What we know:
The protein has 281 residues and is an alpha/beta fold. The protein has two domains: 30-132 and 264-278, Rossmann fold (3-Layer(aba) Sandwich), CATH 3.40.50.10860; 137-262, Rossmann fold (3-Layer(aba) Sandwich), CATH 3.40.50. It contains nine helices and eleven strands. The protein has helices at residues 8-28, 44-60, 75-86, 104-110, 122-129, 138-149, 169-178, 193-197, 260-278, and strands at residues 4-5, 34-40, 63-69, 91-94, 159-162, 183-186, 202-205, 223-226, 230-232, 237-239, 252-253. The chain has a six-stranded parallel beta sheet with strand order 1-11-8-7-5-6. Strand 5, helix 7 (169-178) and strand 6 (183-186) form a beta-alpha-beta unit. Helix 1 runs parallel beside helix 9 (260-278), helix 6 (138-149) crosses helix 7 and helix 6 (138-149) crosses helix 9. It is globular, with a radius of gyration of 19 Å. It starts with a strand and ends with a helix.
Amino acid sequence: MSAEKIDGKALANKLKESNTALATSLKEAGIEPKLAILSAEGDIAGNSYARSLKRAGKRIGLTVEPTGYPDAIAQDDFDRILKETSRGVHGVLVMRPLPEQLDPAMVDSLIDPLKDVDGVHPQNAGLLALGRPSFIPATARSILHLLKSTGVELKGKRAVIVGRSPTVGKPLLQLLLAEHLPVTVCHSRTADLPAVCREADVLAVAIGRARMVTPEFVKPGAIVLDAGFNWDDELGHELGDVDPAVAEVAGWLSPVPGGVGPVTTQLLLENALVAAQNSRP
């Protein structure tokens, strides 16, 4: 028996409708919503996604302004560009990973928390941890959105997250705890990772290794959410962190592509629109 597919494209289309309505209402109120994106010039994947966000923003009525910066940029110069691009816009997104000479903690703290559409500023991360979220990292929020779309009762279900990044694994931990799931967060140093994952009723994977999670990691009937993005030059498309063969064991599975990604895009745009809405005098 094959797993039920969690259709991120269909969910994203519904979010697109609500985003379009919000953008229209903002324009009627005299607000032209704008989102600025900063990415390193050599970041092929980041620049491609920025262009994708620009197209998606145009479809709903949100202006997206991508800006590139030199890969070898000094911290002071980056700080200046970040401040300049933050003026006159409602949302700011800095693409990751950053060049190695830039300090991620410093970059996060320089983003205006009221324009921080991916929830990386310490203030927004702290509010999420306290259960009073403002802006939530879009990928983590997307995983929860897909999970809830299954209609499965979540309270008390055992959840395992594979990956502890500050934009996916850690915020997802807070979101799942708020839904009353007991949660285990795993990473590269977790002993006997497949055995830990097999305990999960809900398995969320964001480890950055193509098709690492195979059927032996999955409890029969589990909900498996794949937040992986690994570009394969030979195939010409992205691969998830979960092997498609998991569908023969899982009860529900979000595909890559067409799962977490489209919903993440719309939730990022939604955060930018909310930031514009909050900017009203």
